[in-house]
Amino acid sequence: GQQVMQIPQYQHVQEGEDFTTYCNSSTTLSNIQWYKQRPGGHPVFLIQLVKSGEVKKQKRLTFQFGEAKKNSSLHITATQTTDVGTYFCADLPNTGNQFYFGTGTSLTVIP
Amino acid sequence: DAGITQSPRYKITETGRQVTLMCHQTWSHSYMFWYRQDLGHGLRLIYYSAAADITDKGEVPDGYVVSRSKTENFPLTLESATRSQTSVYFCASRWTGDNEQFFGPGTRLTVL
To answer: What is the pLDDT of residues B80-108, one digit of tens each?
Structure first.
């Protein structure tokens, strides 16, 4: 099946620092979604990107879809303790109904 | 209250026993999904359903059975539980034509 790789696996940052997680695939990605899961919680949908080179912003969060649609990134500016959690990317191929999740990046924010 | 619920939230069972995890959603979403979450593996799809009486295998279906006789319910059964099925199980749903998935609170299953 499709493999979606995500790096880094863990990231510790000081509060106020920036954070970026990357989602990569050897095959073309179709519909990239990003989810956030708080410790002990469930994944919550953040955003979907579908177009090559697309950039979307949600307050301090910036989401990008690569020009070749082989990668995506989530960047958080000036992290806060409320950003703590695991961030997942997921791809939904155009030809199917099955989502393929990356392994996630666990973010710890040190006050 | 509307939404997607799972029961039980926690379950401990023994190897070889049958276990059924329940998932109920009140939105009349067409699609429903079962995932398992394990450290280092992220979320892996077990089974999904596009509508009542239509189910399909995901990445890791072995050892699991699903049914969907009603749109709102999507139970997951482990016919003979094994220790490797110790995991957190999430149910999710979405509308047809909208890719946003809504996840339930999860069931933490331990197989001894």
So the answer is: 999 999 999 999 999 887 789 999 999 99
All structural domains of chain A, each given as residue ranges with its CATH number in brackets, are 4-110 (2.60.40.10)
* B95 three-class SS: coil
Q: Which residues of B are less than 8 Å from A98 in CB distance?
A: 45, 48, 58-59
Q: Do B58 and B73 form a contact (C-beta atoms < 8 A)?
A: no
Decide if A42 and B105 are in contact by the 8 Å CB cutoff.
yes
- A104 chain-B contacts, CB cut-off 8 A: 42
Q: What are phi and psi of A54, to 5 degrees?
A: -65, 140
Residues A75, A20: contact at Cβ < 8 Å?
Answer: yes
Question: Residues B52-72: what's their mean pLDDT?
Answer: 95
CA-to-CA distance for A109 and A14, rounded, in angstroms? Answer: 6
CATH class, B4-111 region: mainly beta
**DSSP-assigned letter for residue A39:** T
